[in-house]
Amino acid sequence: RIAADLEREMLLHEGVDGARLKRQAEAAARMQRGGLPSVSPLLDGWQTAGWTAQANSLGGDFFDWFSLPEGRLAIAVGDALNEDMEAALSAAVVRAAVRSHAQYHRDAHRLLSNVNLTLWTGSAGDQSANLFCGLVDTSTGQVRFASAGQVSVVLLGADGWKSLSQPSAALGISPESTYQPQEYELREGESLLIFSNGFRDAVDQEGRSLGESGLGDPLAPLAIGMSADEIVDLARDRLESHALRPENSDRTVMVIKRTQA
Q1: How far does Cα 10 stand from its chain's mean position?
Q2: DSSP label of 208
Q3: In the chain, fewer beta carbons within 10 Å around the N or the C end?
Q4: What's the pTM?
């Protein structure tokens, strides 16, 4: 009887602890979702839009944008390469580092290098992430950007679509990692479509991944006449119609469009 009472007491404590952890995880997931930007910056001639879904209540994907001095705009898409709570914590560190370092960097590749050092020095070597960073001069349309790891960057324009992806070492792998600087001047009507590997690598019933062409081909003929929000919605529709189980991976897509020169 004593053993049975002890067992019941232990099960009761486990149930209480489990319920507490569940409530904490749900609160953390709400904070993670609520922290994503929902209102596009009030910049004449520009639109931004994004969407993120995690495989579980917590995950490592995020998108972000924020205004900088002198009419500049910072944009980012991140994908922490851990799982669940660890991924969410890594993503929070990366996003905070981007916002901090972007205040005094005008070159995206140097911004990435500093974010990489922040992640590498602040972890035990077991945290890594994919990250796209772009710094937009909204007066000229010039976009300086760089990527760490596997993030897809696709240009949508009047002439079709073009891949601007430059795979490199993920963040957190080495303090000496370097990142390739890239530049492109967006013209009126053109958009940059940035998406995580959960989007790109989603497979159909025959094991074929969506890839960049799976988004570029259907979106390019329509993107010129669509808003950034509509492009994001169409990308989501394309993912869900292609992928067998899209919910198995964290997935993010973001669009920045120049609507007026």
Answers
A1: 42
A2: -
A3: N
A4: 0.88
**Element housing 2 (H / E):** helix 2-34
The distance of Cα 63 from the centroid of its chain, to the nearest Å, equals 4
Confidence of residue 35 (pLDDT cuts 50, 70, 90): confident
**Which two structure tokens, joined as six digits, stand for 37?**
């930007």
The Cα 134–Cα 82 span in angstroms is 24
Closest CA to 214 of 238, 247, 196, 180: 238
Please list, in sequence order, all residues whose beta carbon lies within 8 angstroms of the beta carbon of residue 131, skipping any fewer than 6 positions away.
76, 77, 78, 79, 94, 98, 112, 115, 147, 148, 149, 151, 171
Cα angle vertex 147, ends 185, 254, to 5°? 70
> Could you read off the pLDDT of 59-71 as tens digits, one per residue?
889 999 999 988 8
What tokens appear for 137 in the block? 């001069």
Per DSSP, 96 falls in state H
Checking DSSP bridges between strand 182-185 and strand 251-258, what pairing results, if any? unpaired
Which residue is it, tokens 């898409």? 77
Q: In the prediction, which pLDDT does 238 show?
A: 95
User: What is the distance between the alpha carbons of residues 227 and 55, in angstroms, rounded to a whole number?
Assistant: 27
CA 191 vs. chain centroid, Å, equals 17
Q: Which residues pair with 229 in a beta bridge?
A: none
Closest CA to 142 of 189, 182, 194: 182
Q: Are 230 and 207 in contact (CB under 8 A)?
A: no
Cα separations (Å) of 200 from 212, 213, 231? Answer: 6, 9, 16
Question: Per the structure block, which two tokens stand in for 219?
Answer: 């979106």
